[in-house]
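Problem: given the chain below (96 residues), write out its structure.
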Amino acid sequence: MFTAARMDIVERVHLSVELLFVAAQRVTASGSFTMGLDAKLLKDTAMVLGSEVFVDVFKHAFISKVRISQSPHSTSLIALYGVQGLPFPIPDIHTA
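Solution.
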């Protein structure tokens, strides 16, 4: 899980640098700082970074759910909390 979080941070930094270069190119092309950084660019940048965070939240939630359901303690979780809907059958070790 830590590795996935670290890779997400690296990906977010790369994405931010790329968006910074896009903003710099727009400022250079327009010749004015205020014309280059208009509301549309800022809205699009926020949408890109926000969707990245949104996808990462769901990705980490899915990874966490799969890790819990495939852990050796999943039978204990079912017995204690009544967790249902595991993606694999749980063997019954009490019947021979």
